Amino acid sequence: MEEFSPRILPLLWRRSIKARKAVGRPPRLSVDLVVTTAIRIADAEGLEAASMARVAAELSVATMSLYTYVPSRPELADLMVDEVFWARDLRGEGTFRERVRLYAERTFAMYRAHPWLAELSRARPPLGPGMLAEQEFVLAAVATLGLPLRQLNPAATAIATWVTSAARHEAESALLRRTTGLSTDEWWLQRGELWESWFDVEAHPTMTAIWNGGAFDRGADEQAQDAYEYGLGLLLQGIEKSVEGDDRVP
Amino acid sequence: MEEFSPRILPLLWRRSIKARKAVGRPPRLSVDLVVTTAIRIADAEGLEAASMARVAAELSVATMSLYTYVPSRPELADLMVDEVFWARDLRGEGTFRERVRLYAERTFAMYRAHPWLAELSRARPPLGPGMLAEQEFVLAAVATLGLPLRQLNPAATAIATWVTSAARHEAESALLRRTTGLSTDEWWLQRGELWESWFDVEAHPTMTAIWNGGAFDRGADEQAQDAYEYGLGLLLQGIEKSVEGDDRVP
DNA sequence: ACTAGTTCCCGTAGGGTATACGGAATCATG
DNA sequence: CATGATTCCGTATACCCTACGGGAACTAGT
């Protein structure tokens, strides 16, 4: 009764494996080389540009040769993701807030350097060292508060989800700017007709009130950033407060 | 000096347009028919199944005929999204909490019925009636609290982002279950080798402590749900508290 | 009844994508 | 030099989107 054993785990954790004795035809490439090449292409031209054919061409090798190193394209994507997660290099001491700040900064930087991350699903992520390092770091950050064990995971997941959502949103915005040639503000301007020709004032009283109050003066990307910081503040404050006993509204 | 005028706005707001006088060859289909057919296919088999060729075949029409009704596939996707957003039918009175609850329930139901929504980016969404109805509803919900105008938008965006993130995550999980044939738990089980062969206890003390404390007993989907509810509670509480004056930590 | 104007319908053609299969090439070892 | 192991890769299949342009089908006007 043999279990199905996915070939991806040994690949993700390949750095923990000692090299086998050399036998057979020696390889021209390596998994690392394939992965870093794919990352380089995706950084510059987007995820879909990093096709098997393109990566192979970049390495002066036939397309099918890549399948010696990587089982298929989804697995290559997993390896790319865990590689940049690992390179984020989450380490450091400090208070709860300091650690969260470090986590957020590094995460935003990672998504800015590798916006194609936003083109890949977060569900069922690669279970490699990079992914686990993130889990550990955020959990450890929350643990500094002294919360009960059962509350650590929800709190850490909430923080990671919130930060990652915002970083992904920013990355998607950057990708769209590159593929369409338009910034978010230019995109909105191009659709100014919406307000002139289609918007129904009576059906949207609250939006209209805010508009008339002049509170829509910031660009769309800035509004998203505002909401991110506002929400992060509420989350952190709520998590901290839950340590000090009763947190009901009086 | 003519501005570039996107053809998509009149399509999104087509219900606000009075029918033109009939002239020329009468159409066999309609925009609504194309959009609802595409939605039906995507509901049953995923977004990529709703290709131009497939939708056309379903309507017994040649592929290129669709381009009479819809400028291109991305625009068709926009129309699909706004259609189901509009069908969510967000209306209702009530307290802040009641409205947020209604918004969350309807949103989760929408993503359950149309999981392909999670395959489309949230950045630069279709600016149609469905999208604007969501904005208005959430803003109005927050407005019941009497917050200052400038705080309405960040608060509403935070709520919508949080709820939508969770609904999308659940939808992605459902999509993966369908395409892979494995539930999330089965997927984790298949990777049990991770803990046996690869996981480094010393590098992950916090995770290990939680594990030993037995706080990892819930499945991955349930953990995500827990984190969602936990975080939503913190956000709502924080937003409510900010009405009652100073909310600093003592 | 005829024509002009308008709109819809759609065949063809081109450039992408991932990967199953099987055989040739290249190495260390005995 | 033979053997076994491993890498390398040519071919073929089945999708995808959409630019272009010409034929078909209708109304309105005369």
UniProtKB/TrEMBL annotation, chains A, B:
Keywords: Transcription, Transcription regulation. InterPro entries: Homeodomain-like_sf (IPR009057), Repressor_TetR_C (IPR004111), Tet_transcr_reg_TetR-rel_C_sf (IPR036271). Coiled coil: none annotated. Pfam families: TetR_C_1. Residues 91-242 form the Tetracycline repressor TetR C-terminal domain. This is TetR/AcrR family transcriptional regulator C-terminal domain-containing protein. It comes from Paractinoplanes aksuensis.
